[in-house]
Amino acid sequence: MSDRYHRAQRLTNLEPCTVTMEEKRSTRGGQARRDRLEQAAQDAVQQSGLRNLSFRTLADDIGIKSSSVHYHFPEKADLARALIQRYSRDFAQSVAVAEATAGRGSLRKKLTGFIGIFDAVAKDDRMCLCGMMAAEIDELNESNRTLLKAYFNDTERALTALFTAHREELASDLPPKTLAALLLAGLEGALLLDRATGGRERLRAQRTLALSWLASAR
Hints:
This protein is mainly alpha-helical. Helices cover 74% and strands 0% of the residues. Helix 8 (142-165) crosses helix 9.
């Protein structure tokens, strides 16, 4: 038989390819670098916005070449997409933790935990990442605008479900969906104005307002 036939047979009979330890370390290293990039980019956007984000500055911040940033995120839109997805996921986890901490507790405890997420952002002199991007909506492509819209809609739905589940504790006649929209919009706006004025009065005012909706506050 021909040499070509024997080569084909040898290839056919090869055992499945296995991933070497070196390849595994390379994969883990690449993911670790991507995670560092996303965290550094998130910090920068929460402080200064997407418009001011520079790939070169981002690379310098974590000690890599700017070409390495482009390897993971060819365009700024790719990075923006990853950041919105990351922040949405982390925020949902923070909400779940806050609710789990409150357990079967009152609506007051759960609202306090939710507002505390925004309070933690303010303590670091930052904005909600999605709130910051909403202020720079013209910087986003259509796909990322859809992701941003989903973040706000999902958060409002979670709050609506919370108010609905504890409706007997509410003194307000407003529907749960309206209360959810008021709370989220108020907290996002409070972060913006408190950062501009260097205070925390508006976040405190939002907490007072939200708790005034409870029957126990009357």
